[in-house]
Design brief:
Layout: E1 4-7, E2 10-13, E3 18-24, E4 33-39, E5 46-52, E6 57-59, E7 67-72, E8 77-82, E9 91-98, E10 103-105, E11 109-114
Parallel strand pairs: 2-11
Antiparallel strand pairs: 1-3, 3-8, 4-5, 4-9, 5-6, 7-8, 9-10, 9-11
Length: 115
């Protein structure tokens, strides 16, 4: 059973930056894709950024140019660098990984952007 553990959330002012980390308990190359999702109160969970095993990336339109997904293979960790944060980025951020047979989720980390 693979575990994903997020960290790095917190309270930041508009225009600030945060870096989220997602540490996997196994080699991250077991995952076809690793993603960051977020869920704001009263809203559906949405994908924010994706990173494939082959290093292709994809971003939601709302975060393009501001967020960057990356990984450190040696640390089995995926990151989400978030810059120019806006109040509408406030949400619980979840790390997700999919293999051939299962989906894995972290417990989530809260990001709050004050105006």
């Amino acid at each position: 059973q693979v575990q994903l553990v997020e960290s790095g959330g917190g309270l930041v002012q508009t225009g600030g930056s945060l870096r989220l980390s997602c540490a996997a308990s196994a080699n991250i190359f077991v995952f076809n894709t690793m993603d960051w999702y977020r869920q704001a109160p009263g809203k559906k969970r949405e994908v924010v950024a994706s990173l494939t095993r082959g290093s292709s990336t994809n971003y939601a339109d709302s975060v393009k140019g501001r967020f960057t997904i990356s990984r450190d293979n040696a640390k089995n960790t995926v990151y989400l660098q978030m810059n120019s944060l806006k109040p509408e980025d406030t949400a619980v951020y979840y790390c997700h990984g999919d293999t051939m047979s299962m989906d894995y989720w972290g417990q989530g980390t809260q990001v709050t952007v004050s105006s």
